[in-house]
Specification:
InterPro entries: AAA+_ATPase, ABC_transporter-like_ATP-bd, FeS-cluster_ATPase_SufC, P-loop_NTPase. The chain is α/β, with parallel strands linked by helices. It has nine helices and twelve strands. It has one domain: P-loop containing nucleotide triphosphate hydrolases (Rossmann fold, 3-Layer(aba) Sandwich), CATH 3.40.50. Helix 7 links the parallel strand 9 and strand 10. The radius of gyration is 18 Å and the shape is globular.
């Protein structure tokens, strides 16, 4: 469903991702987990796949077998690719509810999201400026509600949804992410440092990204336990990294 082939990404003259080839496909409702130390290229990979302007890309980004490199961001979203920011911007003077209602275009359609709003405990910030004065957990829930309102999404890219939130929000967000994938009949790729969210999602495949390459692929919990015991230093001698 989603893969990159011989993908290289350069940012401000520095090559961050180097000839990366990886099939991220997992069954509908399941997650592919991407681990890796800071600066290894995980967020760069997501942003390049979304088509952000400062990312120079060579190689192929394939969604359902179709190359999407030449598409603008909104066209990639319409094609079925969605992205959850790690640190989304605050928009002072712009109410979440106003933007959301305009996006769905119909009051009746807006009412269809009532259950999503309640499941995310989001009513308290609907009439507030987007992400202004919100807690870390509220910002994450706001992002998830925005994703829920997109149509025809096939692949969700979640950039560290478990960072900067407490345990209560972690459980709520993890459960909702899984429900969202099932509802949309989509798959998810998630970047995590702590791995805490793995307790609350159905992650079936994982990989370690190191120095802009995939160092290993395996079961998410086995990879996480290895990282906790040995750190990422083991990746230095990985044959894939050496290539």
């Amino acid at each position: 469903m989603f893969k990159v082939k011989n993908l290289s990404v350069t940012v401000d003259g520095q090559e961050i991702i180097k000839g990366l080839t990886q099939d991220f496909a997992v069954p509908v409702g399941k997650f592919f987990v991407l681990f890796g130390p800071n600066g290894c290229g995980k967020s760069t990979l997501f942003r390049a796949c979304m088509g952000f302007s400062k990312y120079e890309v060579s190689g192929d980004i394939l969604l359902d077998g179709k190359k999407i490199n030449g598409l603008k961001i909104d066209e990639r979203v319409k094609s079925g690719l969605a992205y959850m920011y790690q640190n989304p911007p605050s928009l002072k003077g712009v109410k979440f509810e106003d933007v959301a209602k305009e996006s769905v275009g119909d009051d009746l359609v807006w009412k269809e999201y009532s259950k999503d709003i309640d499941n995310l405990d989001a009513r308290k910030f609907l009439k507030r400026d987007i992400n202004v004065g919100l807690s870390g957990g509220e910002v994450k829930r706001s992002e998830l509600l925005s994703l829920a309102m997109l149509e025809n999404t096939k692949v969700f890219l979640f950039d560290e949804p478990d960072s900067g939130i407490d345990l209560d929000n972690l459980k709520k967000i993890g459960k909702y992410m899984g429900d969202l994938l099932k509802k949309k009949k989509a798959m998810g790729i998630i970047v995590t440092h702590s791995g805490d969210i793995l307790k609350y999602i159905d992650a079936v495949k994982g990989a370690v990204m190191y120095r802009g390459k995939i160092a290993c692929v395996g079961k998410p919990m086995e990879i996480l336990n290895c990282i906790k015991e040995e750190g990422y230093s083991k990746c230095v001698n990985c044959e894939e990294v050496k290539k």
